[in-house]
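Predict fold of Pentapeptide repeat-containing protein; 211 aa.
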Amino acid sequence: MKIDIPKISPELTSRDFHDIFYEEDPILEMCKIIDSAFENEAVDRVRLYNAVIKNCKFTNTDFSNIDMTDVCFENCDLSNVNLSHSSVHRVEFINSKLIGVNLEESSLGNVKFENSILNLAGFGNSKLEKVIFKEASLNSTDFFDCKLKKVEFQTCNLNGANFDQTSLKGIDISSSTFDTLTVSIESLKGCKVSSYQAIKFATLMGLIIKV
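Predicted 3D structure, encoded as tokens:
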């Protein structure tokens, strides 16, 4: 599946999140933010467009209602960041840490999480369309009551992930690994799995497989 990559201008100005901390209408665009720390803060309804964010730390910061378009995060720490009720489009998270990140009730389109850690992340009640998780750790990640359309899990760790009330029809998890998964039989209809995973699901359902 091809997704639209961030459209980022070659002409970017150096900025910092502290620049918008006291602004009534916080917006950062056409910028690069490098080697910055903005932790344990709260800024509501930030608009972030056309930006490169590299080697930055945002742990425990509240960015709820953020609007992000055409942004690339690389080597960033967004652990326990609140991104709930957000709009995230044409955004990449590369080699980043998003442990416990809150993306509940959000809209994600053309988003890639690559070589990133999303253990204990929350996507509950969100809509994900054209989203790629590539070589990502999704241990105990919560996808409760999500709408998934054209979502790929490429060589991911899905152990303990929760897909309760989320249909996996058309979703391919065959290259990913897990020991346990929270998902209903109804939600699994149309999901693409490996033969090994099919046996594991059968075992989790209580079937006794005779060889």
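The mean pLDDT is 95.
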